[in-house]
Each structure stands twice: as C-alpha cells, then as structure tokens.
Amino acid sequence: MNEINPIYAIAAYLLAIVTAALVLRAVPKISDHLEHAGNSRFASIDGLRGYLAFGVFIHHSIITWIFLSTGKIDLPPSNFYSQLGQGSVALFFMITGFLFWDRLLTQGRQHDWLAFAVSRLFRLYPLYLPLMALVFVTVFYLQNWELKDSGTQFIGQILSWLTFDRPDVNQYHQTGMLISNVTWTLAYEVFFYMALPLAGLIFVYRGGWLQTVLCLIGIYALYQLVGWEHSLKKHFLAGFLGGIAAAYWIRRPHLLAWGKTPLAGAIALLALAIAFTAFDRAFSLESLLLISLFFVIVASGNPLFGALRPRSIRWLGEISYSTYLLHGFLIWVLMQRLPLMLHLDAREIRVFLPLLALGSCLLILISSMTYLYIEKPGINAGKKTLHWLRQNRNTQKRLSETSAPLG
C-alpha cells in the first residue's frame, strides 16, 4: 500500500466518463442543455469541475481503503492520490474566487447583491438538506432509534449541521465520516460569499480610509464568526487568491491571448503534473503557485488539447456539486457497510477495486438524478424567489410613493 498504482484512478475516470456519455445518450434534453452551455466564455472551467469533483471521490476512496487496513485516517502515501483531493479543493476555491470576483469587476456598482445572496442560498441548500437528513436518519437507524442526547443538545447539533459544521450526532462517533467530512469546504465558500461585499468596497469600489478600516474589521469579524467552532485556516483561504488573480489576468488582452495557445496548454499541464507529483499538499506556497498557473491558463479559455471539451466531461462538471456532496456517503455504504453484509473483506485489492468501479458508475448515475430532480429545481426556485422578492419590493415602493403626502 506504500505505492498505490495511478492506473486505479485512470480506470475510475474512464468508467465515470463512459457512464456520463451513456446518461447523455439516454436523456437527450441534457445534450441540448450542454450545447447551450458549451458556448459560455467559461466552458473550460465547466469541464474542469467534472475532473475535480470525481478526483475528490477517488481521493476519499483511497483514504477509506487505508483506514480499513490500518485503522488510521490519513492522507494517501502517494502524492498523486493526496493531491486528487487537496489539489481539487484548491482549484474549486480558485473557481469560486474567479467567477465571483470577475462578476464584481464586470458589474461594479451595478452588481446585484440580492440576486447573489438568493442564488447562493438556493445553490447550496436544496441538495445539502436531504443529505443532512440522510445522515441523521442513518445515525438513528444504527443506534436503534434511541435518543442519547438531550433535546437541547440535539437541536444544537441540527443547527451546527445547518451551518456546515459536523459535530457528532446523538453521540455517534465521528458522524462526519459518514460523508467523508466533505462539508468543511462549504464553510470556506460561505466565508468568501459573506466577505465579498466588504472586499469589493475595499478593492473595487474604493472609498476613503475609514471605509477601508471598517471593512477590514468586518472581514475579520466574519472570519471569527464563520470559524467559530473550527478556525478557518489562512493557507486554505489563499486558494481563493489564485482565482482572483485569474480575474485580473483575463483582463490583459496579451495574457488572455497567450493563455489560449497550445504552448500555454502544455505549460499548464506541466505545472499541474509537477504540483501533483512533487508535493503531497496543495496549499504549500510552491504547490499553490503551480496550481494557480494552471488555473489562470484554463480561465483564459484553454481547452487543454481538447480534454475539457467533450460533452461527457462537461456533464460531469454540471453535476459536480452532487458528485462532491454525495460521494462520501456512497463510499461509506459501498466500502464499509456492503462488505459487512456480504461477508467480504474490503481491505483485499480484489474486493476494493470492484467496489471502486461500481462506485464510479453509481456516483455519476446518482449525481445525474439529483442534479436533474433536486439541484436544477432548486436553482429555478431561487430564480422564482428572486422574481417574487423584486416584485414585492417594487409593489411596496409604489405604495409608499402613492401614499406620500402631496407637497
């Protein structure tokens, strides 16, 4: 186990891509949606998401295999498998930083903060709430439906999970391991969303020194608030900076043009290869710089010699939130519960690899369904809610104007 063969990851990726292609063939309306999305100026980033979310699944599968063999939860001994998780998360943070900072730079003071807040709320929670309910039901099922904590403690646990923290539920040890603790990254995303208006006031809108000081104090207060239970680590937050840098990069015509060239694509792949093989941590300075170089080239629209263009890859990107959020529970079911039921030893490579293959296919199928029937309706509900809020606000404004006394 000291050297885990990279061929396992390659085979898992191929299974996922084939499964995605079969889903596209089975559901033609998805293809129409992807044709429209393929014209987006950030289509390369859409393709990248698919590789990243599935990479985290492989990363956690290997960690689970190691845990079953050693009883210890630790990063894989292979730099490549370690970076499939850490490097993918760093790139997810860069994608977030890039997309929203780019929008802020483009729209300036016309940025619609109400739409931003509503869209984020309806993007995160429609899928997260069913997953959270599944975790709680699983815990009580494993404990024969016995409430072991007080009602007050249980309510506190619910509230903590609603804010993406993962305390033990009803005294079930390491409850977060049921989902591979994936929600830790959402706390960082939420901090970025909440801090974005204040950062915009400092770096985009640029008021006086007093405004800058107050905004810095506000960002620090948010930093403490969001990291109340488990402090936010500054080197993880640095991942967002790579995305913000890319938002400025694409505004330099000569850099944007160079970023689309085959040479730039080759340099991007080389930088990523070095980061994923020479380092076991994504958030060290050297590794983060290499990954940031890779990302700014992708953000320029470079398709990496066609690797980001196939419809199956872009579908993996479309369902990446489902893939990321749900894969931990699927790993727990397939690699910890199922072997017990079938009297199999998942530590054996001949058992683990078929489970990894099965999980690769199932994850894409499940994620496709949850995207179509939970995520997408949730996004649409957010748009309807925003429309209702605007109508209501306009109605109240008209009423206040008509009821005002005549001068």
Automatic annotation (TrEMBL):
Residues of the Acyltransferase domain: 43-367
One Pfam assignment: Acyl_transf_3
Lineage top rank: taxon: Bacteria
Transmembrane segments annotated in the record for this chain: 6-27, 48-68, 80-101, 122-142, 177-196, 203-223, 235-251, 263-283, 289-308, 315-335, 355-374
Recorded GO MF terms: acyltransferase activity
Keywords annotated in UniProt: Acyltransferase, Membrane, Transferase, Transmembrane, Transmembrane helix
Record keyword NADP present: no
The protein's name in its UniProt record: Peptidoglycan/LPS O-acetylase OafA/YrhL, contains acyltransferase and SGNH-hydrolase domains
Species of origin: Pseudomonas mohnii
